[in-house]
Amino acid sequence: MKHYYFITEPEERCQTCNIRGRIDYPYHYNKRDLEQYPIKDINIMKELKSNGSWAYRPVFLSKKFRDLLIENGITREVINRDDDNYKSRDWLFEPVVIIE
Question: What's the farthest any 2 CA atoms get from each other in the chain?
Fold first, then answer.
């Protein structure tokens, strides 16, 4: 996982725009590497991710499944934890980029 850091913001959040001092790149996967594993609506990755306290395997949802969750009112569209509309019952959606 790669990150962008703002060297001009010594605090955790910018005082002007309320953005964290670090932006995470989205996950990037090579399409050829994924061809051996069929992509489904619900996918559990083999890679481990850590939040600093514990490690877990991320769950990735297809766009079709994500849209169904939003359309049926199960969650709102939330891209990151810093969104003002992110509440405790919402599902946090992070983008995934599949490259050729």
Answer: 46
Q: What is the DSSP letter of 71?
A: H
Rounded to a whole number of angstroms, the CA Rg of the chain reads 16
73-86 burial: b if 16+ Cβ within 10 Å, else e? eebeebeeeeeeeb
- Three-state SS across 1-20? CCEEECCCCCCCECCCCCCE
- Please write the tens of the pLDDT for every residue from 31-64: 887 777 777 898 888 778 777 788 888 888 888 9
C-alpha angle 26-27-28 in degrees, rounded to nearest 5: 110
